[in-house]
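batch job 7 of whatever, protein = Sulfotransferase
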Amino acid sequence: SYYHFSNGVATVPSYDTWDDFFTDFMTKKTAWGCYLEYLSEWNKYADKENIMTITYEEVKENPALSVKNIATFLGIPLTEEQLQLVVERSSFQSMKKNSDKTHGSFGNILFRKGGVSDWKNLFTDDQSKEMDKAFEEHIAGTKLGKKLKYDLYCKA
């Protein structure tokens, strides 16, 4: 996602190839620094009572349960009708369809495919191994890392 985002936003450095982006990503030369370090920093807050972690993969797998969990976390009671309305309006397809109204021309950059595991279409085997190693070094043992690893590898 970050690769496509970078190539879509004029104010962020773009990349001619995936390999160029991957090299910069792994050497912490992309805009906003190292994503794995960013996740590691957020892990400090994962157990706080006012923090809820949820992955895109979770939402895609079971949107209704995800909305219920978020509403419960926020203390917002939902009727079944309200729940279904939120699920429909917050679906990727619905948000993409309305993105010109909600996000202007930026919507085409933010709402690209809406799938999961598309990384498998870009990463070479060596890149995948390199990313796995970096993941292990930075966040694999953390609560957030365990959640991400399960969602990215076990569910995909």
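notes: The chain has a mean pLDDT of 87.
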